[in-house]
Amino acid sequence: MAKTTWKPQTTHGELSTKEKDNLPESVFAFPKQRKEPITDASHVKNALARFDQVKDVSDEDRDVAFANIKKAAEHYGIDIKEKDWHELGKAPHTKNASK
């Protein structure tokens, strides 16, 4: 299991480029690359949905990112069924309102 680096941050909602640039690495799913900020429940869901779209990261980076997303999800009360990032993309993370 990868060690998490995520820590809660008080910034919520849409982030401007300047706001994102000023965030500490500890709020990103991929901290070294500063990709996928996870500052609230909405960002956690986005990070899950976009996980497989993140480019130029190693499997080790993905291990850390998934551990960070799981920690943030627990903090924000979001249930993640997947135990490993390899399971992502096999089932939707949000309910389809049309069904």
Termini distance? 36 Å
Strand order within the widest sheet?
Answer: 1-2
What is the count of helical runs?
A: 3
Per DSSP E runs of 2 or more residues, the count of β-strands stands at: 2
Instruction: Name the beta content range.
Output: 5-15%
Tally of domains: 1
Low confidence ranges: none
3D shape: globular
Q: How do the SSEs run, as a string of H and E?
A: HEEHH
* Rg from alpha-carbon coordinates: 13 Å
Mean pLDDT: 84
> Structural class, from secondary structure content?
mainly alpha
Main sheet summary: 2 strands, antiparallel
Helix content: 25-40%
Précis, in short:
By secondary structure, this protein is mainly α. It has helices spanning 17-22, 41-50, 59-75; strands at residues 28-30, 35-37. Strand 1 (28-30) and strand 2 (35-37) form a beta hairpin.
What topology emerges from the helices and strands here?
Elements: H1 17-22, E1 28-30, E2 35-37, H2 41-50, H3 59-75
Antiparallel strand pairs: 1-2
Helix pairs in contact: 2-3
Features of the shown structure:
single chain, 99 residues, mainly alpha, two-stranded antiparallel ribbon, 2 strands, globular
Give a structural overview.
This protein is mainly alpha-helical. The protein has one domain (17-87). 33% of the residues lie in helices and 6% in strands. The chain has a two-stranded antiparallel ribbon with strand order 1-2. Strand 1 (28-30) and strand 2 (35-37) form a beta hairpin. The N and C termini lie far apart (36 Å).
